[in-house]
Amino acid sequence: MSMRTEKIAKAPQKLESAPDKQGSLKQNGLSIIKFCLHTHGTTGSYFLKDHMLLFVKSGIYTVRFGDHKYTVRSNEMVFLHKSIRIDYEKSGEPGSEFKLDYIMFFLNENMLEEFVQFSGYKPIYRVNEPVSVSIITVDEFTRAYIESLKPYLESPDEVKDGLVRLKFMELLYHLADSNNHFLLELLQPGRDKNSSISKIMEDNITNPVSISDLAYLSGRSLSTFKRDFQAIYHTSPLKWIRNRRLDQAKKLLLETTLSVTEICFSTGFENVAHFSKVFKLQFGLPPSEFRLQSHPREESIKWNM
């Protein structure tokens, strides 16, 4: 088995069709997905629309966000805040035929608000920014909870929607008991309301997001987001983000040796043919010809070596 690289995926939507998925539970924006694979190393990126908790039963899951690296090993859990892009590396333990076994929990703001109301838990308001990634303590009660999910994941069609919500509620109770500071950060209300449109756009230029996703991340309805965006930029969100991606692709073609395919995916485009078409419309040449014309001498030297 060799290192395998996967292109950026929107989570949890794209994970439902993942080849290493073993089972899942879904209900009104809540998802629990179990994975198991054998790998020496698989790398890729996720854009997280919702909050994610990732529990590693066996193996190693490494998360990179910004300049920080977080390593999650067997019987450990990591929390990843919504609206961020992370890079990951998945690898199994040598003694178990490089087996990696893990579960992802995706939860939205509605679930958190319901938990606060039901439990009576009182978060403390703080002015500091919420953490984006943090390692969470997993005690024996949380490990027992993880094991209790096995029959539900094996027979998801027999599980009622209300029970899925109860299992999420149970998880949050366990985490509240053993990780008070984590929940204080997670449950701070109102931090996403009417977020800066300019910051949302800059943070998501190369992420696989739709206009509806951007509106959601800004805390606005789709119509309000489009209206506010037009007032700021005097163009549509679709045109703005496409042009920024094309400018970034042009820069990478001029300054790096990345292939056209790598540049396509790294700048947020999901189809090489479409990327080449819109690039030609913007700059007059397809990406490969644009690079060749920009560096004719270097190309001549390469072919003569």
Question: Care to describe what's here?
Answer:
The chain is 43% helix and 24% strand. The strands form 2 sheets. Strands 1, 2, 5, 7, 8 and 10 form a 6-stranded mixed beta sheet that branches. A 6-stranded antiparallel beta sheet has the order 3-4-11-6-9-12. The protein folds into 2 domains: 183 residues, Jelly Rolls; 108 residues, Orthogonal Bundle (Arc Repressor Mutant, subunit A), CATH 1.10.10.60. The chain is globular, with a radius of gyration of 22 Å. It contains 13 helices and 12 strands. Helix 7 packs across helix 8. By secondary structure, it is of the alpha+beta class.
Write the layout of secondary structure elements.
Layout: E1 4-5, E2 9-11, E3 21-27, E4 30-38, E5 42-48, E6 51-58, E7 60-65, E8 68-72, E9 76-80, E10 84-91, E11 99-107, H1 109-119, E12 133-136, H2 140-148, H3 150-154, H4 161-178, H5 180-186, H6 197-203, H7 211-218, H8 222-233, H9 237-255, H10 260-266, H11 272-283, H12 287-294, H13 296-304
Parallel strand pairs: 1-5, 2-5
Antiparallel strand pairs: 3-4, 4-11, 5-10, 6-9, 6-11, 7-8, 7-10, 9-12
CATH architecture of the largest domain: Sandwich
Sheet-strand content, in percent, reads 15-25%
Uncertain spans: 189-193, 298-305
Number of helices: 13
How many separate structural domains? 2
Instruction: Note the quaternary state here.
Output: single chain
Major sheet description:
6 strands, mixed
What is the top-level CATH class of the largest domain? Mainly Beta
Question: What is the CA–CA distance across the termini?
Answer: 33 Å
